[in-house]
Specification:
Layout lengths: L2 H9 L16 H12 L1 E8 L6 H9 L16 E11 L2 E11 L12 H19 L15 E6 L8 H10 L5 E5 L7 H17 L12 H11 L4 E2 L6 E4 L2 E8 L2 E4 L8 H11 L1 H23 L14 H95 L6 H19 L3 H13 L4
Parallel strand pairs: 1-3, 1-4, 4-5, 5-6
Antiparallel strand pairs: 2-3, 7-8, 8-9
Helix pairs in contact: 8-9, 10-11, 10-12
The structure holds guanosine-5'-triphosphate and magnesium ion.
Guanosine-5'-triphosphate (GTP) binds next to helix 3.
């Protein structure tokens, strides 16, 4: 429907008509009630408090039953959340109750991040609901709504005021959930101390800007009781599942050597006030506030984060389709930009690798050339040596031939009779030369022979 069409209906004058008789739409509230009763309700409580502060006992006391209670250890390395869901029935009303306990809260030396798992848990439940809401085929009425409707923050009764862990955690939680602080184990402090502690806690909460849940006063039916109860905050509670005989009545109480503390006695503690406010008077408001305030805030932030908005910069109303188209275009442009970046990166990488390869090829080529030069040099040297050796051999052969010729001549001379002493000497020498030539082929000896023959003037 176009915006101007809606405006026409808005400006249209409405007339009040009297009915001629009973029509039946006055039963609408009854229809709603019976439908809600048939559907059942769900309620989710988050208990935040140090280990052993009395969370489980208070829940057992509150619902007058015994839930599964597993004692937590004091040596957890971080804070965890332990949800447990139960189906309860009172008269004909079914209640799906989820109780979430913190485990290990306040047990770490560094408590700076203790609030984080709690916030994450609350957000995760909102996210779960939002996902269901955004589905095409959604079943919000049938799905188990796990969003936290109330957070009971357990304050230790010891000490003069709030610890910094209490303040930091409550400050982080107050915009996410309906926060109700309670003073646990209130039977361990005297009445006057308790009054002082309450005043101190409230003033610290106010001065630190912690917004706790205020019981609503708009509805006339509950305005009086709620505004009176707001002045009693934070409630000082005592928990016990033990039935003790007081007078002739069995009551829930804690028994001490000097007497008993009755859980449901308003002079002893604020347990009844808490139960009344939480379950009997304001349960629906807590559920409504969770949906209308805390969930709406989460949803708005989440959708804005995703790029959805109700108006464009010129305050024109923005349709979901337009937002989707704009977001899609933005996404495609982003994708294109990223693709281009990747492509450019790839091209640069290829270029770099190519340059590296070219450099390596050049180096290899230079090395090859160097080796080739070295090889040629070596070849030349060898060639030189070969030539020298050949020359040496030729010279030797020449000398050998000369020596053999001389030897032949000498042998001829030896075969004639010696006339002179010199000839005698020559004859003996020739015999020796012959002997040597017969027995020895050594080249150096040949050359020495030739030298000797020169000496004796045989050449
Ligand atoms: P974890 O789940 O282990 O963190 O402990 P919790 O916070 O659930 O405490 P739980 O209810 O188990 O109580 C721990 C102890 O405190 C038990 O011995 C209880 O009897 C005792 N206790 C519980 N509530 C009160 C109370 O109101 N007053 C006193 N004096 N003791 C209490
Ligand atoms: Mg417990």
């Amino acid at each position: 429907m176009a915006a101007n069409e809606i405006d026409v209906f808005a400006n249209e004058e409405k007339r009040t008509l009297d009915l001629g008789g009973h029509v039946g739409f006055d039963s609408l509230p009854d229809q709603l009630v019976s439908k809600s009763v048939a559907q059942g309700f769900c309620f989710n409580i988050l208990c935040v408090g140090e280990t052993g502060i009395g969370k489980s006992t208070l829940m057992n006391t509150l619902f007058n039953t015994t839930f599964e209670n597993e004692e937590a250890s004091h040596y957890e390395s971080d804070v965890q959340l332990r949800p447990q869901t139960y189906d309860l029935q009172e008269s004909n009303v079914n209640l799906k109750l989820t109780i979430v306990h913190t485990v290990g809260f306040g047990d770490q030396i560094n408590k700076e991040e203790s609030y984080k798992p709690i916030l994450e848990y609350i957000d995760a439940q909102f996210e779960r609901y939002l996902e269901e809401e955004l589905k095409i085929r959604r079943s919000l009425f049938n799905c188990h709504d796990t969003r936290i409707h109330i957070c009971l923050y357990f304050i230790a009764p010891t000490g003069h005021s709030l610890k910094s862990l209490d303040l930091v955690t409550m400050k982080k939680l107050d915009s996410k959930v309906n926060l109700i602080p309670v003073i646990a184990k209130a039977d361990t402090v005297s009445k006057s101390e308790l009054d002082k502690l309450k005043i101190k806690i409230m003033s610290e909460l106010v001065s630190n800007g912690v917004q706790i849940y205020q019981f609503p006063t708009e509805d006339e039916a509950v305005a009086e009781i709620n505004s009176s109860m707001n002045t009693h905050l934070p409630f000082a509670v005592v928990g016990s599942v033990d039935d003790v005989k007081v007078g002739n009545k069995m009551v829930k109480a804690r028994l001490y050597p000097w007497g008993s503390v009755q859980v449901e006695n308003e002079n002893h503690c604020d347990f009844v006030k808490l139960r009344e406010m939480l379950l009997r008077v304001n349960m629906e408001d807590l559920r409504e506030q969770t949906h209308a305030r805390h969930y709406e805030l989460y949803r708005r932030c989440k959708l804005e984060e995703m790029g959805f908005k109700d108006t464009d910069p010129d305050s024109q109303s923005f349709s979901l389709q337009e937002t989707y188209e704009a977001k899609r275009k933005e996404f495609l442009l982003d994708l294109q930009r990223k693709e281009e970046e990747m492509r450019q990166m790839f091209v640069n990488k290829v270029k770099e690798t190519e340059a590296e390869l070219k450099e390596k090829e050049k180096e290899l080529h230079e090395r090859f050339e160097q080796l080739k030069r070295m090889h040629q040099e070596e070849k030349r040297n060898l060639e030189e040596k070969r030539r020298e050796l050949e020359e040496e051999m030729n010279a030797f052969n020449r000398r050998k031939v000369a020596a053999e010729t001389l030897m032949g001549q000498a042998l001829q001379g030896c075969s004639q009779p010696f006339k002179k002493d010199k000839d005698k000497k020559n004859g003996c020498f020739c015999e020796r030369v012959l002997m040597l030539l017969n027995n020895n082929t050594d080249l150096s000896r040949y050359s020495r022979l030739i030298t000797l023959m020169h000496y004796f003037h045989w050449t």
